[in-house]
Amino acid sequence: MSGTVHVERDGNVAVLVIDNPPVNASSADVRRALLDAIGTVQSDFTIEAAVLIGAGNTFVAGSDIKEFGKPIPEPQLPVIQAAIRDCPTPFIAALHGAALGGGFELALSCDARIATPDVIVGFPEVSLGMIPGAGGTQYLPRLTGIPAAIEMICSCRRIGAKEGKERGLIDAMADGELRATAVAFARSWIGRKRPLGRIDVPPSPADAIDKAAAAALRAGRNRPQVSAAIEAVQWAASLPFDDALAKERAVFQALRQSTEAAALRHLFFAERQAPKADGLDAIEPARIARAGVVGAGTMGAGIAMCFADAGIPVILVDQDEAAVDRGMAAIRSFYERTVKSGRMSESEAASRIARITPAASLEALSSADLVVEAIFEDMDIKKDLLVRLDGLLAPHAILASNTSYLNLDTLAAVTRRPDRVVGLHFFNPAQTMRLLEVVRAQATSAQTLASALDVAKRLRKLAVIARVGEGFIGNRIYAAYRRQCEFMLEEGAFPEDIDATLENFGFAMGPFAVADMSGLDTAWRMRKRLAATRDSHERYCEIPDRICEQGRLGRKTGAGWYSYRSGERKGASDPAVRALIEEASALKGIVRRAFTAEQICRRVVVTMVNEAALLLAEGIAARPSDIDVVLVNGYGFPKHEGGPLFWASHQDRATVLAELENLAAVSGYGFRTGDVAGLLDRLQDQA
Predict the structure, then answer these.
(1) Catalytic (active site) residue 437
(2) Which domains are present in the chain?
(3) What is the pLDDT of residue 1?
(4) 425 carries an active-site annotation
(5) pTM exceeds cut of 0.85
(6) Angle separating helix axes 495-505 and 474-491, nearest 10 degrees
(7) 114 close to 172: Cβ distance less than 8 angstroms
(8) What sign for the dihedral angle of Cα 307, 313, 319, 320?
(9) Annotated catalytic, 227?
(10) Is 496 marked active-site?
């Protein structure tokens, strides 16, 4: 047999071992070898049962996603499944590790499934812009019922062995070595077949189906693949099995060729590439056994929870007992809400809280292997703290800064260990936001960078490597596009116009709503810090400064770009803000004009593309895909658009360049135009 599938004998049972490291993806080679192996089983009358098992640490973790962007080579998975169903020999799937997507569909086409207690199963296809395309929408409802199948497929939720057994997805649990147990289980199936297509779908009340569908659409933001998955699951009860399979496959094929599916595949691969850098493969990261966080405010408390959630003991320090107590109170409150929601047990929450040691003295950090400073965004204050930490930490300890904007090279230079200084820029709320910018300063050693990336992995964060520059990757682009939004305020738009347009495009929130949520004072401090070096000839919008000068700092003060009633998270348009904006336009002699939604949206995204071109030229971002990862995961750019650079690669080139020229004209003196034409060429070459 082919090297990807081995047929081995255990008496009257054939064991088909899928061996396609690292995750046994269902590639064309695997499918061809499987088809040959099934033929061998069918032609050998001494084989009375067959076991399908994965080599290594997993069953089949899914299809080869690289195949989805082009015609899928034959034989396709449904051909393999049909061969298993049509073979008179019973097939048992022996599951361990992961059985996801096409891997789980392969298992469901067998007559029964046995699994180890640590297995996970599920369907990730909706998260990739598709629906399961090899029977997933038809097999699953026959075992779980339609409402549960809708929830499982549309949420892309991974299901453990216990729940899988309860729902009938797994028939037996392996109480010993999987292969031996599976062979014994297969012998109990000799002489019988149970293709799931012959099983009726359990009846479900119409209102339960409607409720599951509504919840899935709401959670999935009404994306087309969610609607298609809901419809396909219901075919299981209304169409003959073979007809439903054919329709499911046709929908899958159409969706996988859509721009949205291409965007989501782009992000899938981009996220796996982002934490990689040349020269790190052979470096052993330092083991971080104990961490420390300085600053018990919102960000510091969140970062401490990240370590506690990862099982890493952490010391949380602030300048006095009262500040530390406030931080610990916020931490306990977060975990209490998590327990109340049913997402965590009380004992688990207590264990995580116990991993956090509060302290009001920096000396408590002397045993830490890594310390993250998360204090006030002020260069002098941070420099003073790093000098003090440098003097009391062990020589091997790593110093990390959570700065959002400040120059990490300058911070590292005040220490005696600049090679052990790195940026770990968490996003708020740190305990729930997945993105982490790992900033490599000029002196940061490869070993320190490797250690920081290892920590990010342990914290289950999505790490993107950035070099030093004002705002790094994310905040640099955010500042550029927010500045254009402020220019549009002067030219005729209002905050609600811009926010609504970008939210309709797919952003989680518009920039003015985001500013109100995070607080307007952080950006205000940054503007004041840069005021002395700003060229007076450059276009500058004073509206945000006037808003802050009135004490409107966002939700926390009850007013910012919007006004907020007590306890409400969503703000209302404020006539006072409108009047302030109109007055600012008049003072500059700007005749206000109306903007269309398309004009607002394209101006924002082209601004992002231009700033990305500058970042890449400066070496702050290593690759275009890193920028897409940051903007999608940290700034709410719509996933279905793939990020601003994926978006740009699918636009008319001449139109984008003309819009960039107009952007430069309206921005005036000092606007820096990046090599967007060259960037578009690069994106085209990578497509």
Answers:
(1) yes
(2) 5-257 (3.90.226.10), 291-471 (3.40.50.720), 475-686 (1.10.1040.50)
(3) 45
(4) yes
(5) yes
(6) 130
(7) yes
(8) positive
(9) no
(10) no
